[in-house]
């Protein structure tokens, strides 16, 4: 890349020098042509003022040109009909063609001054012709001289041109090399930093580069690297959660299965000596099997919510009747724990699945009752804010420690495992709540203080 940038830079500079040289040459050539014309006109005017057209014109012209031996000009005097009456280079005018149709003569007759540049038939070299209509009589004066434009001055200009080109190329090479390095060096630094992505606990750092685009590449690279690192951490975290999930599922299922097997073995071995003991064993078997069924149902519900593959019937659900029915069914549990429940429910209709909304409120209210203090309260608020339905379930219970707030929505996560086992449940309640909220593109917010209670705020779009 460095070689390509350097090569293109030199090509561009060379073309720029060639173009500027061409423009410069054309400009100088035009200036030289203009100055030469002005000098020739001045000379013709002087000659016109000096000639006495009633005397021998030829001898007068020869005398004037003899003053400057270096002057290679040719003076021709014609009448207005184009007939040559005197010429500085020729004595016999009889064989000279009429000059009336010459370009410079026609211009002089029209405008007083005429110009032409052409190759001389006599000398075979480029000549510059300037004609001037005399102010003293009916005559036309013409001066001609060899003119090759800038070529005549190349002997003087060529060394200076070559020197300037050489210096320009040397400076261009130095600047081109520096410019290419200023681009490629940061790219090498960025690539070296990218190799650190594979290293653990390594943060990419880039210096502030000269060009905005390189800083943009560096910043974008850093953002992408951070995103990759976060994705890797997330994948590792999800892997850990998945491993914990399978371990917890195995443990949660193993416990009731072991218990059921133990009671069955006791029954088979005749350890139940009377009907009362048999009924007690059968009741425990039934309870454990129900716990196992509840656990499997909860796992299946989370799986369906995650994949969104299950067919869900969406209808207009009235929230207040659902909440009131749940509170009525949970009164025995609330009375058992000496918990009072207050409800402030505004009429809201939500497009959702009624069963999922019941499950959401049931898990939140049951947790608020079970993890409360004796004589505590549960406050339930249902309201509307903008285009969102707001559900708030707040308790005065034991609260959740700060380090556990981020994990309470994980499957099987329990803040106080000993207390949770005694209270019962599958450990999937809040995980189900979160998945239901996500299913409806909502959000859930937890506020809790240890020993003072917890507050769950849910927002779900009405449509």
UniProtKB/TrEMBL annotation:
SMART domains reported for this sequence: HATPase_c, HisKA
Catalytic reaction(s) noted: ATP + protein L-histidine = ADP + protein N-phospho-L-histidine
Key word Nuclease present: no
Superkingdom field: Bacteria
UniProt keyword annotations, A-Z: Kinase, Membrane, Phosphoprotein, Transferase, Transmembrane, Transmembrane helix, Two-component regulatory system
Domain Histidine kinase: 248-463
GO cellular component, one term: plasma membrane
PROSITE patterns linked: HIS_KIN
Primary location group: membrane
Molecular functions (GO terms): phosphoprotein phosphatase activity; phosphorelay sensor kinase activity
EC number: 2.7.13.3
The protein's name in its UniProt record: histidine kinase
């Amino acid at each position: 890349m460095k070689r390509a940038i350097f090569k293109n830079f030199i090509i561009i500079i060379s073309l720029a020098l060639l173009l500027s040289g061409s423009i410069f040459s054309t400009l100088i050539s035009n200036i030289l042509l203009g100055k030469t014309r002005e000098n020739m006109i001045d000379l013709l005017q002087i000659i016109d003022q000096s000639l006495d057209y009633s005397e021998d014109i030829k001898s007068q012209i020869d005398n004037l040109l003899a003053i400057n031996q270096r002057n290679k000009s040719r003076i021709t005097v014609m009448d207005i009909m184009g007939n040559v009456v005197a010429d500085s280079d020729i004595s016999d005018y009889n064989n000279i063609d009429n000059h009336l149709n010459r370009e410079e003569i026609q211009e002089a007759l029209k405008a007083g001054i005429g110009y032409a540049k052409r190759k001389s038939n006599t000398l075979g070299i480029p000549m510059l012709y300037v004609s001037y209509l005399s102010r003293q009589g009916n005559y036309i004066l013409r001066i001609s001289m060899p003119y090759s434009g800038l070529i005549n001055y190349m002997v003087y200009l060529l060394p200076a041109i070559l020197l300037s080109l050489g210096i320009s190329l040397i400076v261009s090479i130095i600047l081109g090399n520096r410019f290419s390095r200023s681009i490629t060096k940061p790219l090498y630094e960025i690539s070296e930093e990218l190799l650190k992505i594979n290293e653990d606990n390594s943060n990419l750092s880039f210096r502030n580069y000269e060009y905005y685009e390189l800083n943009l590449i560096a910043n974008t690279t850093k953002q992408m690297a951070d995103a990759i690192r976060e994705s890797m951490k997330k994948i590792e975290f999800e892997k850990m959660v998945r491993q914990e999930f399978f371990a917890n599922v195995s443990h949660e299922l193993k416990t009731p299965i072991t218990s059921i097997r133990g009671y069955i073995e006791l029954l088979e071995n005749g350890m139940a000596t009377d009907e009362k003991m048999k009924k007690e064993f059968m009741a425990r078997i039934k309870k454990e099997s129900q716990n196992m069924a509840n656990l499997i149902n909860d796992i299946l519900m989370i799986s369906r919510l995650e994949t969104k593959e299950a067919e869900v019937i969406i209808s207009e659900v009235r929230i207040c009747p659902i909440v009131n029915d749940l509170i009525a069914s949970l009164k025995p549990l609330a009375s058992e724990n000496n918990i009072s429940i207050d409800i402030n429910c505004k009429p809201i209709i939500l497009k959702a699945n009624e069963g999922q909304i019941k499950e959401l409120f049931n898990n939140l209210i049951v947790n608020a009752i079970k993890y409360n203090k004796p004589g505590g309260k549960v406050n339930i608020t249902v309201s509307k804010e903008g285009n969102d339905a707001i559900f708030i379930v707040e308790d005065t219970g034991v609260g959740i420690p700060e380090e556990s707030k981020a994990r309470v929505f994980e499957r099987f996560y329990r803040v106080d495992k000993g207390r949770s086992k005694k209270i019962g449940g599958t450990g999937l309640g809040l995980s189900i709540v979160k998945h239901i909220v996500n299913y409806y593109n909502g959000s859930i917010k937890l506020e809790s203080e240890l020993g003072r209670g917890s507050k769950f705020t849910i927002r779900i779009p009405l449509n």
